[in-house]
Amino acid sequence: MTTTDVLIIGSGIGGLTTAIKIAEARPDLRIVVLTKTNEGESNTRYAQGGVAAVWDVEVDSTLKHREDTLDAGDGLCDEKVVDIVVTEGPTRVQEIIDWGARFDRKADNKGEYDLGREGGHSENRILHYKDLTGWEMQRTLIEKTDQIKNIEVLEHYFAVDLITQHHLGYAVTRLMPNVECYGAYALNKQTGVIETFLSRITVVATGGAGQVYRATTNPVIASGDGIAMAYRAKAWIENMEFVQFHPTALYNPGGDNPVFLVSEAVRGFGGILKDNKGVEFMEKYDRRKSLAPRDIVARAIDNEMKIRGEECMYLDCRHLDKEHFIGHFPTIYEKCVSIGIDPMQDMIPVTPACHYMCGGIKTDTKGRTSIKRLFAVGECTSTGLHGANRLASNSLLEAMVFAHHIAHELVQEIDTVTHKAGIPDWNAGGTTDPKEMVLITQSIKELKEIMSSYVGIVRTNVRMKRALDRLWLLHQETENLYHSTTISPQLCELRNLINIAYLVTRSASMRRESRGLHYNTDYPNKQEFIQTIIL
């Protein structure tokens, strides 16, 4: 059993920023960060576009950023949360700059930042590091973390379950007001032993769940572990129907997992969406054309593909300055060339792919969940910022702002909390080693096909009913396997992905309207009422 003051599950921007801020405020506290691969692997690392914040106050304002966020969120944003994030955002961005983040500056020797623009933004406000912004921010946070003595990062630990009164023999329900978290059980992937981490306060920062779909821009670690653990622990989960599909993943049949992302910043730079004949089509869907919010663009591309019977649409960058394009998007350029596409001579084939979960663990403005002693930060949460559709480049900003709030609240509270006594070690009695790993790998493939075919960009009641029926069978089979065999990372990920798939499908079937990222052809219009769906 490992005993710590603060346990943080996840080492992306939300987890590491929270750890740094707690450690700097309270050097006397022991902070343990668990990551299921290595410290540098997270959803944060794959963020290309940048981080949105009002920087050029002569032309931009927090009011404009607020309105852009609310417009993208399609009526479901929490306006109080939006105000907090857009107002505090520039300060949080300045902090990571002070820690060493190197955002691109203009080449005019004035030292001003080269602010980009993305879909849904009315002004240029995206700070970026080429097309590797997430990588640069992750690098900064790792270097900062390594300098702080009271933060311990444990690599290759897979969190299995949050510890609550349930593990002490009590019946825990979602309506109980006093559910508490005492830490987590985690699988040491190097020894195969499930260890107990006892903590006074726990923070879930596990990122998204894009691997629930066949085509996703998310890394293979994005299996929704934190949301699934919180759901099983009876935390409130909300708005899971709002799955954001990025409009422009690189179309490369039989290619990568994750699929390669062609950043929205390319369209902000001047790239234009066209069909295979080189004709623009976005003016049919939105006055902002290729710079409309992601939900509109993704549905437009999906619709054009279906109308024409094509596997992809195209992003035309041939008219752009080659030197500036390569300087701004070196990774994208190199990837395209590696598969035989020269963006300066060929249109880039693109197709939508699962990118971001706008729903997740419900939190308040301080990052608290419905479970006491449990906070959550980052993509695994539903703070109210994104509503029915996330505005581009608001996610990294949200993580930094809420990490700051969590750290402030946590250091005020932690001295009133003690470790829970009597927590049992993990009991693996009565289980055997799995005889056929193919049962797990095939179930994961089946799950991805179900979600991609029935609960994708466009949905119907019939499709979602079929998905729920298939998911129930997968759930039963997997639970039988879980309770009869020893734990493996693959089995845990399958179990978590099934939980996520159920939450997405169940929430989608309950929303009898089309709003934001959720489009149901049986209810093509918005309703007069606006509701948040909590499970």
- Please give the CATH architecture of the largest domain: 3-Layer(bba) Sandwich
In percent, how much strand structure appears in the residues?
Answer: 15-25%
Radius of gyration: 22 Å
Structural class by helix and strand composition: alpha/beta
CATH T-level topology of the largest domain:
FAD/NAD(P)-binding domain
Beta-strand segment tally: 18
Q: What does the main sheet amount to?
A: 7 strands, mixed
CATH class of the largest domain: Alpha Beta
Which descriptor suits the 3D outline? globular
Please give the alpha-carbon distance between the first and last residues.
Answer: 32 Å
User: Oligomeric status of the shown chains?
Assistant: single chain
Estimate nothing, just give the exact number of structural domains. Answer: 3
Number of helices: 13
In helices, the fraction of residues equals 25-40%
As residue ranges, the low-confidence spans are none
CATH homologous superfamily grouping of the largest domain: FAD/NAD(P)-binding domain
Rounded average pLDDT: 93
Keywords for this entry:
alpha/beta, FAD/NAD(P)-binding domain, Flavocytochrome C3, Chain A, domain 1, Methane Monooxygenase Hydroxylase, Chain G, domain 1, four-stranded antiparallel beta sheet, 18 strands
